[in-house]
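Title: Prediction job returns without error message
Component: structure pipeline
Severity: low
Priority: P3
Assignee: unassigned

Description:
Job completed but the reporter wants confirmation the result is attached to the right record. Sequence as submitted:
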Amino acid sequence: MAALQLILDAGADPEILMQARDGQERPLYYAARSGWLPALKVLIQHGSSVNATTESHDTALMICDKHKYWDCFEELLTAGADLGIQNSSGQSAVSIAEGNGYGTGLQKIIWDAVVKGSVTCTDPEVFSALHVAAKAGGLKVLQKLIGQGDVNINVLDKYGYKAAMVAVREGHIDAFKLLLYAGADIGMKNKKGETAVALARIDTLEQLEWILLDAILANIVKSEGFQEGHADACKLLLLAGADTTLTNERGETALSLAQKHSTSKAAENAILDYLAKKFVLARDQVAKFKRQGRGKPHEKSLSMLKSGVLSWGSSKRRNVVCQEAALGPSAKFVRHRHRKVDGNNPSVFRIVTLKEVHFEVSSPDKAELWVRGINLLSAEVRAQGVGE
């Protein structure tokens, strides 16, 4: 060992090829294959390249893997050995180590290196420190990685997962929140078409809802790096029963904020769709007109069934399948009621079955919800029929 130190100190080339059993090899490969840690350290100190590859594109890190010299592996990792390199067989240092049954021990070595900030990786699909930290729920490490500035929050691993998806899948909600604040795009999908929200565990779903609703309702959306208008997140939250009446300190709801921001149109539509369907499935008192607006309207209790049937009574005539619904009265209705104050009432809407039927509700907003909800549910029922 002293001789090697002396030769290198005298100016010998640490990369000079030396004779080996199967030909020639770099001194670093020999040290890695032999598990000779002191020699490895000296060679690294004198500039030996830790990422040089053999003819089969193995690195010294991979050679340590194959011979299970984990102290040498750790030394190379600390010196900047690249975990993103793959050999000609498509194996990386991590996959080789895991194949040798050193999964847990390897995780600790890599985790310690991640904590120290001494992990190098040029291909995030092969290895990503961000994903490792997200999987472990390591908030301090995530903060450190994000604080470096050059990290891509939305980078995908080989399975198509973002770090935010990994955090949610593992139940690390605080880690997810940190990534969300840093700009994670929760609308992105993995290779299976799943979003971060879809991967949430049942025991963490409620916490996740609050975090995302806070993001939608936040008045710090832009300054804190939130992404506005996540329609997919809105839909999933609403299906999970998120409270659409929740307000922030200024009395704003998710819907009113979505309407205020032009970039949130998709989110606005998602919330309105949910509210409209929920509204028409419940009962509401309406005034129903007979004979295209002739005569006095009668009060009815109107609701829509999940089967797509609109109902305002028990008889067959009062349970109909709608072709469509539209805001406002028809031209014929207006003619019939041209002398009435409700001839052009904005609270009137109509449905088309075998004939047109007109209803009046207590406000134009309710009329819009009725039309939107009827058309949405009718379209869903028709789509299910086509699919069957």
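Comment from assignee: result matches the submitted record. The first helix runs from residue 2 to 9.
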